[in-house]
Amino acid sequence: MALEQQIQKDIVEAMKAKDQTRLNTVRSIKSAILLAKTAEGGSKELQDGDIFKIIQKLVKQHKETAEQFIAAGRQDAADKEMAEASILDAYLPKQLSAEEIEQKLKEIISSVGATGIADMGKVMGVATKMMAGLADGKAISAAVRKLLS
After folding, report:
1. 137 Cβ contact partners less than 8 Å away, ≥ 6 residues apart
2. Which of 3, 28, 99, 118 is the S-S candidate for 48 at Cβ 3.0 to 4.6 Å?
3. What band does 7 get if pLDDT is binned at 50, 70 and 90?
């Protein structure tokens, strides 16, 4: 089943279960998908990979907002944001561990022929495409920097 249809099905299930947090969170995914489809120059059909990118962006936003709430002393609001982030995480593929990221990066570095930190751009270009949806960009960047230095 395509991810977009699964999201629609989950909206209906959350309505039936009267789970307001889950319903609002899944609706936010649906809203972001509709915005991407109707955006200027956007495609009318999104692939699952595109939807994963949208969901990753939403997760990142929720986590950053939670950090801001914690800094402001609003733990209740931070907990709500983290709960929504965990609901969103369920739609993403399993994230790669640090060891798996390093192993894939070693393969990429050898295939690209990178020798030093000056080749970081080449490696990052290939790595972000290859590991899209499977690893956070910051984690990839940190691992590339570590391996090339």
Report:
1. 128
2. 3
3. very high
Instruction: For residue range 110-149, list pLDDT tens digits in order.
Output: 888 877 788 788 888 888 888 877 777 788 888 888 888 7
CB 85 within 8 A of CB 60: no
On average, the pLDDT of the chain sits at 86
DSSP letter for 44, please: S
Tokens standing for residue 121 = 């751009």
Taking the C-alpha atoms of residue 103 and residue 83, their distance in angstroms, rounded to an integer, is 32
**DSSP summary character for residue 1:** -
What distance, in Å, lies between the first and last C-alpha atoms of the chain?
A: 43
Q: Which residue has the tokens 């999104």?
A: 46
The set of residues, in sequence order, having a beta carbon less than 8 Å from that of 110 and lying 6+ positions away, is: none
